[in-house]
Amino acid sequence: MRHAHIHLTIGALLALLAGLGLFATPAQAAPVICEKYGSTSIQSNRYIVQNNVWGADTAQCIDVNQSGGFTVTQSAHNNSTSGAPAGYPSIFAGCHYANCTTGSNLPMQASAPGFAALRSSVTMSYPGSGTYNASYDLWFDPTPRTDGQNTGAELMIWLNRQGSIQPIGSQVGTVNLAGATWQVWFGNIGWNVISYVRSSPSTSLDFTIDTFYSDVVSRGYGQRSWYLTSVQAGFEPWIGGTGLAVNSFSFGTGGGTGDQTPPSTPGTPAASNVTSSSATLTWAASTDNVGVAGYDVLRATGDSFTRVGGGTATSYTDTGLSPSTTYRYRIRARDAAGNLSPESAAVTVTTQPGTGGGGCAVTPTTQTSWNNGYVIQPVTVTNRGTSALNGWTVTFPLPSGHTITGIWNASHTVSGGTVTVRSLAHNGSLAPGASTSFGYQATRPAGNTQVPSGYTCA
């Protein structure tokens, strides 16, 4: 099916309407809005409520609730379920096509210290008929964009769906997050669309944004360098929709009505099996009043820690590290409601100078990356030993769905997902301290942002 937010391709029109003052935007009024793209701010512009009938010309009206929501009072839609919905009546914080709220601190980079504390909650009511979904819509962009189409990731969280509708793309897995089980769907329509569909319908959700975005990043569909630009909650109606209501909505660094108790601080991680490109971490478990849902592994080479992985186990092996490099690691725990523990004390790890061949080390550099491919160049091979190298071999795992389309200054073979790169006659002999390099180009599934890691040299 077409995705619910193709309406953003008419962003120039929406921006023009905003510039002409054609949005209904009184500061404190709580009106009934029937204009297709009408909107109004509430709570002194803390949030904006929008009618947003982008996919139909049929009537839709919403009665805005100044305390933080709205009710669809008229909805005459009859869109085909094989196509796009009629619109997305919603309430949001942040910026949507230059229509921005006050005090949200958005856009915010997903690697920023305050990102992990961002949370949102919503309560909803559903009518007994109609075809619709009830969903969050979280937008990410590679830049701190406040207007126009976001081109990074669109993260949708479906609390409920009625009728024969489905997210864009196809189902790629299931996951337990925020105290529930979700189907995970992925597609790309010029930007990544990752949808989490709750296995059993719910009228409420209280969660931290990073609970879901961490899963997006771990699947290769998003990046920590991207910016969260808006957090929206509402409905996508295909047929009918009268009676759909957001009863309450919150966004910020606190609030919510569910479990507010974070897990205890995890134990300081201990490092073992440190090689030139990997290290294994283990730590003592956290405790929680309800239950620990998982752990985040945070890594730093300077002052700033960013999440590099995690899971439900109290151990993690970090791969793709550079030889002779010092890293610091901390651990934090999260519960089913998305509450985050304080970060553990840090452990410092220095990788080995290389393995095999008297001290062979390999350092890859991503030269360029695009939607469905990338170039890794140079991949530098260095003799860190005290004797000469007579030939070298570099191996690394190739992510699923990736294909090497060209390689230069080396030969290669692929077997079982492992790439083996070998030196040529002119660059196989390296004196102590000497370096050479090769490069390669590869394709990958559209929307997958992964590049290979875990290089080893012998």
From TrEMBL:
Residues 1-29 form the signal peptide. CDD domains: FN3. The keyword Signal applies. Residues 253-273 are annotated as: Disordered. Residues 353-458 form the CBM2 domain. GO terms for molecular function: cellulase activity; polysaccharide binding. Keywords: Carbohydrate metabolism, Glycosidase, Hydrolase, Polysaccharide degradation, Signal. InterPro entries: CBD2, CBM2/CBM3_carb-bd_dom_sf, CBM2_carb-bd_dom_sf, ConA-like_dom_sf, FN3_dom, FN3_sf, GH11/12, GH12. Pfam families: CBM_2, fn3, Glyco_hydro_12. One of its GO terms (biological process) is polysaccharide catabolic process. SUPFAM superfamilies: Carbohydrate-binding domain, Concanavalin A-like lectins/glucanases, Fibronectin type III. The keyword Magnesium does not apply. Residues 259-273 have a biased composition (Low complexity). Residues 265-354 form the Fibronectin type-III domain. Belongs to the glycosyl hydrolase 12 (cellulase H) family. This is Chitodextrinase. The lineage of its organism: Bacteria, Bacillati, Actinomycetota, Actinomycetes, Streptosporangiales.
